Amino acid sequence: MTQYVCVRIPRMDNIDVGLFDYDRYNTLYFFLMNADEQIYTRYGGRDSTSQDSHLSLDSLELALKKGLELHEDYKAGKLEQTPRPKPMFPRENPLLVERTFARNVCVECHLIGDFQLQLREQEGKLDKLSEMFGSPNLKTIGINLDIPKGLVIKDAQGPAQAAGMKAGDTIAKIEKTPVWTFADLQYRYDKVPRDSKQVQLTVQRDGSPVDLTIALPPRWWLTDIRYRQLTVDPRAYFESRPLTDDEKKQNDLPVDGFASRVSHVDGFAQTMKSHDLRVGDIIFGVDGVQRDEHANTAELYIRLRKTAGDSVTVDVLRDGKRFQMPVKTFRMSYRK
Amino acid sequence: MVQLARCFTIMCMHTRFAFLLAAILGLSLFSSAPARAQDEDTIDWFDNYEKAVQEAKRTNKPIFLEFRCEA
To answer: Which of A37-46, A137-146, A202-211, B1-10 bottoms out in mean pLDDT, i.e. has the lowest?
Structure first.
């Protein structure tokens, strides 16, 4: 650590968040860089299981060593320059100014993330597939990392295995961009357009690079985002699971529709008078719509297609009877 | 190794997350000697980004930048 100049930023007030772009729902995030503000690598990353699910002392040590190597390349003039992103500062977001600067409260990382999304929502530019469902889980495509070893593959399954990925491979590039850490990989994977059908990875195997093309399954971006404090995520206080094709046929519902069974009803549903759904109910329509190119459940349809605070009418099948029910969605209350 | 052993002691006392933080805050991770005489448990942290960049220019060292939520 003494080979680095160490700086800790607990407040984001005057930070160029365009340069230091990262998933703001990380509790801890590091950049290794030089005095010309060229970022070598990043360290951090997480998933829904915990804030430190991808952190380890061993992988941090690997990252720090790689940072020193890249710094030597930089000093020797061997490091390729990367274009600097467009600067952006928290004070440029009027919603953030109103809720933090004007009240003299901390400009927290996740507030920057959420108010950026709110601003996009107000401007009609919010892309929920990429911005709400951020940092897709690599396990969805079968990539299981040996976390202490950085980007070494512990186990490849599903699409990754089908593409030829093997245990012991080390991921070196994604979409032709070099990556050194899980945070690098997760950051670049998050930039893959959500309508992509495949992603290109290069792995190191026995000292040689091997290019792999991994087919992306439907809804590869769908990730558990319950740990994120997202005000742009309409809260309807229920969860639902997709029906199988057979279940849809048995209930005379379209096979390509998002009919789904309610699997959980949050206690807030009653408190907030959101709806009267019960576990086991089948929801087969929302505001008369039964199909969606991305949603495979009614819950996901509402999240993707409705705005927090909207009221909708759902088509419900309960005990063989079909009826309609109003559902009111909510915006996270503490940051209305 | 002594330093890593200390880390594991800390790990036993705190959560994994706290362990990682403690390791980063207080312990040198490399076997090579630090560039200048320094208490091995002490890292001189900057809390000002611009000053850290200036220091990196002066010393020709890379920067370790931490974003950390303290809320």
So the answer is: B1-10
**pLDDT, tens digit, 9 for 90 and up, residues A269-300:** 999 999 999 999 999 999 999 999 999 999 99
Identity of the amino acid at A23:
D
Please calculate the CA angle A141-A145-A151 and round it to the nearest 5 degrees.
110
Contacts of B57 in chain A (CB under 8 A): 35
Nearest to B17 among A12, A51, A106 (CB): A51
Distance CA A207, CA A137 (A): 27
Q: Which ranges of B1-71 does DSSP label H, i.e. alpha helix?
A: 2-13, 16-26, 49-59
Structure tokens belonging to residue B11: 């790990």
Relative to beta strand A5-9, strand B63-68 is parallel
Report which of A43, A2, A149 is spatially closest to residue B3, judged by C-alpha positions. A2
Distance CA A5, CA A113 (A): 27
Q: Residue A334 pLDDT > 70, yes or no?
A: no
ipTM, 2 dp: 0.89
Residue A38, both tokens? 């060229």
pLDDT bracket for residue A143 (50, 70, 90): very high
Q: Which of B28, B60, B65 has its CB closest to that of A31?
A: B65
Cβ proximity of A317 and A251 under 8 Å: yes
CA pair distance A55, A46, nearest whole angstrom: 8
Per-residue pLDDT reduced to its tens digit, A191-223: 999 999 999 999 999 999 999 999 999 999 999
A105–chain B Cβ distance below 8 A for any pair: no
Reference A108, options A33, A17, A235; nearest CA is A17
Interface test mutation site (partner A, options B63, B68, B70, max chain A beta carbons within 10 A): B63
Show contacts of B42-48: CB within 8 Å, 24+ apart: B43/A1, B43/A2, B43/A6, B44/A6, B45/A6, B45/A7, B45/A8, B46/A5, B46/A6, B46/A7, B46/A8, B47/A7, B47/A8, B47/A9, B47/A10, B48/A7
- Are A5 and B59 a contacting pair at CB < 8 A? yes
Determine, for residues B61 and A106 on separate chains, whether the beta-carbon distance falls below 8 Å. Answer: no
